[in-house]
């Protein structure tokens, strides 16, 4: 328990220290009107309080990722917790802060427009396709996950719950953001707090030993000997660093009222998600006697089975149901905004105004039809594609943020270094994985490292301080 608390303290300390440092590097302008204040349209650009924007941001980004990912990551052992802490502070929260604040500076633009502004038109067009693909995968994953959990709690079948959740997503995607999302998320947030705190208290007073296999960070405990590199960094995305967040931050960039709130809303929400990830990683490491036992439960029912077993065992039937509902809330509150973000990206690309309801439906209905068809694929395959697409999006967004900083002669390394790391991770994974090229790990790693070196040198050659931008910042 003491190790878990130390990790939580490290995340909080990171918010107040490194988060403050990142804010100074970016240099927010409190006197400058945000898009919510200058472009209020009553649909997507709506001024909301900082507390409400933070809570919506947290629930938007904290889907199944910081639960399912850390549960799967726990198979590798305690080293997974180190990745959550360091990844969150130095990569994930930095990524989220810049994806949000660069959107604010770009009048609430979606991630493809932000990337295009700083990396060029090719990157913009690539991200238009890639971001919509990622969001569709996210939306589908966040339909199937909660549908399976709800199916385990009720007499209704999973397909029925899929239809119900899709119906909610359609409604939440097209109505003004303050009508459903802004009103009901505070209740969902309370349920999330109950789930998170309740489970850790339940674990602390139970007869389960914390980290039964010890705090051995040098050993890979995976029962099937899957390699730590680069799989851990793909498996645990949300909770460490996640490109999905770059698609969500612009939603709140259109609602925040002052740039000085960026650290609290964007960096802070990622720290909050890191705490959720630590909780589920600790539960995976502690509730089961060994990673073999955890893997057996995963083999029988996937991460959803682990959530159900852990929750009902630690909190009893009623408390377990409440905890499972808290877990269900996370993907549902991310799935609706995933489809909402996809609608906005498509609308920006096609230049379709979104204030009229019929124009929102014109994009939303075909999008949900495609999403429903994707649900017919195997969940495990969808999850693997989601993991790679998620981290690749994060990599591109970090390079865009690094370009923004280097053009203004600011300390770009705070984004460049994590961008380099994520480049090595995503390229190595694609070269090695079955969904990619299936090459041997040694060959894949060499390809990943060489690609990273080439990309880094090209970046430093192409992007230089821009005197005009530097003058504008002063």
Automatic annotation (TrEMBL):
The membrane-topology field of this record reads:
Multi-pass membrane protein
The transmembrane segments are 75-98, 126-147, 153-172, 184-206, 226-244, 264-288, 314-333, 361-382, 388-406, 413-431, 443-463
Location(s), subcellular: Cell membrane
Q: Which residues form the CstA N-terminal domain?
A: 5-144, 153-279, 296-428
Among Pfam families, the record links this protein to: CstA (PF02554)
Do the record's keywords include Chaperone? no
The alphabetized UniProt keywords are: Cell membrane, Membrane, Transmembrane, Transmembrane helix
Q: Where is the signal peptide?
A: none
| Family membership | Belongs to the peptide transporter carbon starvation (CstA) (TC 2.A.114) family.
Q: Which protein, by its recorded name, is this?
A: Carbon starvation protein A
The scientific name of the source species is Salinivibrio costicola (Vibrio costicola)
């Amino acid at each position: 328990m003491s190790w878990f608390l130390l990790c939580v303290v490290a995340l909080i300390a990171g918010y107040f220290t490194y988060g403050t440092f990142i804010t100074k590097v970016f240099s927010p302008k409190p006197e400058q009107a945000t898009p919510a204040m200058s472009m209020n349209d009553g649909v997507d650009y709506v001024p909301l309080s900082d507390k409400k924007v933070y809570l919506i941001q947290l629930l938007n980004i904290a889907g199944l990722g910081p639960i399912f990912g850390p549960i799967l990551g726990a198979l590798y052992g305690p080293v997974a917790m180190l990745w959550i802490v360091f990844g969150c502070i130095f990569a994930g929260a930095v990524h989220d802060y810049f994806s949000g604040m660069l959107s604010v500076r770009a009048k609430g633009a979606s991630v493809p427009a932000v990337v295009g502004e700083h990396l060029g038109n090719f990157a913009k067009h690539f991200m238009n396709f890639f971001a919509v693909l990622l969001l569709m995968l996210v939306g589908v994953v966040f339909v199937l996950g909660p549908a399976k959990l709800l199916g385990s709690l009720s007499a209704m079948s999973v397909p029925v719950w899929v239809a119900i959740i899709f119906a909610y997503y359609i409604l939440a995607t097209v109505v003004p953001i303050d009508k459903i999302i802004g009103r009901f998320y505070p209740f969902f947030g309370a349920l999330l707090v109950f789930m998170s705190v309740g489970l850790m208290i339940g674990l602390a007073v139970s007869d389960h030993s914390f980290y039964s296999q010890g705090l051995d960070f040098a050993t890979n405990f995976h029962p099937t000997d899957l390699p730590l590199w680069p799989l851990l960094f793909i498996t645990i995305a949300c909770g460490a660093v996640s490109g999905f967040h770059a698609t969500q931050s612009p939603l709140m960039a259109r609602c925040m009222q002052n740039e000085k709130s960026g650290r609290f809303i964007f960096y802070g929400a990622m720290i909050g998600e890191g705490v959720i990830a630590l909780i589920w990683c600790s539960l995976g490491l502690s509730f089961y006697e060994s990673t073999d036992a955890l893997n057996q439960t995963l083999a029988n029912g996937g991460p959803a089975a682990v959530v159900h077993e852990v929750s009902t065992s630690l909190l009893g039937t009623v408390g377990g149901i409440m905890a499972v509902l808290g877990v269900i809330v996370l993907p549902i509150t991310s799935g609706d905004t995933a489809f909402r973000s996809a609608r906005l990206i498509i609308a920006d690309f096609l230049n379709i105004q979104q204030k009229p309801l019929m124009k929102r439906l014109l994009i939303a209905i075909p999008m949900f039809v495609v999403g429903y068809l994707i649900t017919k694929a195997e969940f495990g395959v969808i999850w693997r594609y989601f993991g790679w697409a998620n981290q690749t999006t994060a990599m591109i967004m970090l390079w865009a943020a690094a370009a923004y900083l280097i053009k203004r002669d600011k300390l770009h390394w705070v984004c460049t270094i994590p961008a380099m790391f994520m480049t090595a991770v995503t390229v190595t994974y694609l070269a090695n994985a079955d969904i990619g090229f299936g090459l041997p790990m040694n060959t894949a790693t060499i390809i990943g490292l060489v690609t990273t070196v080439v990309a880094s040198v090209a970046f430093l050659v192409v992007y230089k301080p821009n005197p005009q931008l530097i003058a504008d910042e002063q």
